[in-house]
Amino acid sequence: MKKQLLVIAVLLAVLSCLPAYAQMPNYADLTKQLVDIDGWEAQEATGMNMNGPMGEMVNAVREYEKNGAQISAQIVVGGIAQSTWAPFEAGYNMESPEIVAKTMDVSGHRIGITHDKMEKTGTIVVLLNTKAKNGIFALAYEGLSHEEALDLARKFSWSGMEKVME
Fold first, then answer.
1. What is the CATH number of the domain that holds 71?
2. Could you tell me the residue range of the domain that residue 141 belongs to?
3. Are 128 and 158 in contact (CB under 8 A)?
4. Which of 6, 44, 76, 82 is spaced 20 to 30 A from 129 at the CA atom?
5. E strands within 3-148?
6. Which residue has the higher pLDDT, 63 or 91?
7. Domain annotation covers residue 3
8. Cα 155 vs. chain centroid, distance in angstroms?
């Protein structure tokens, strides 16, 4: 019995030392979540799994264009996702003649929005897998209002992204 417990303890120790990216999704699975959007021309989705001294990261990205407007949809998993969400963590909202920055709940997800009114550019950030805060969906945009960008962001399945991350 002691030998079995020792084997289990060693096995658990070894498993806990495995790199975190072994638990990360494959970027190719995430790219499938970056769907076509009616009326928008889209490039092929791409991405990468990365491991280095600063930790592990997975990202998938796809670029879209329509009538001069551009969007870049990206799914990020890992520590960099936490850094991307950090400015929205406190839940502050502000608006000036130049910018809008706010957080809100949409379809059970925390959303962060930054928007430059003059340039008509900004980013929508959706917090994924909220228990671990290890994933985000980001939609960077040019030539759109933040309301239009949020409507486009909602065309992606945030819950589908979370399922790939499990």
1. 3.40.1000
2. 23-165
3. yes
4. 44
5. 41-42, 46-52, 55-66, 69-78, 94-95, 99-106, 109-116, 121-128, 135-142
6. 63
7. no
8. 14
